[in-house]
Design goal:
Length: 138
């Protein structure tokens, strides 16, 4: 692999670490971590999901998902209810989380906008197309 490719993947890894840190700095004062936000965002956008569906979508192991969901449930942001299959529980947002969602979203959007302030719309679209192509290789 060429040095450019190695540096490319190293840069992606470093960016995601720093982005998670910046997102945590924006969300922690609001009682949430970035990993929890991702789940809340998905549930708000897509509706109730199973733990397995969430873990697969996010690419995390079951024990990691179990711990994160447990923390969200303890905080009062999610609840679990029986699905159509009695063995499977559906994860849903609580009313408290729904009410808090816009505040969290605003904090996330502010963080994202600060990061993207030097990026043109054209650069953003080009980068998104590259990420889609890279995702096909996973």
């Amino acid at each position: 692999m060429s040095d450019n490719r190695n540096e490319f993947f190293h840069s992606i890894n470093q960016f995601t670490r720093h982005f998670s840190k910046a997102l945590n700095e924006a969300l922690v004062p609001l009682g949430l971590y970035s990993a929890q936000w991702t789940i809340i965002y998905l549930l708000n956008t897509n509706g109730p999901s199973s733990q397995k569906e969430l873990a697969q979508y996010l690419g995390v192991e079951a024990p990691t998902m179990t711990r994160t969901l447990s923390r969200l449930e303890s905080a009062g942001w999610i609840t679990k209810e029986m699905g159509a299959d009695r063995r499977e529980k559906r994860i849903i947002l609580t009313e408290a989380a729904v009410q808090q969602f816009d505040g969290w979203l605003q904090a996330v959007r502010t963080c994202e906008n600060n990061i993207l302030k030097k990026i043109s719309e054209e650069e953003l679209l080009f980068t998104q197309s590259i990420i889609r192509k890279m995702s096909e290789g996973l």
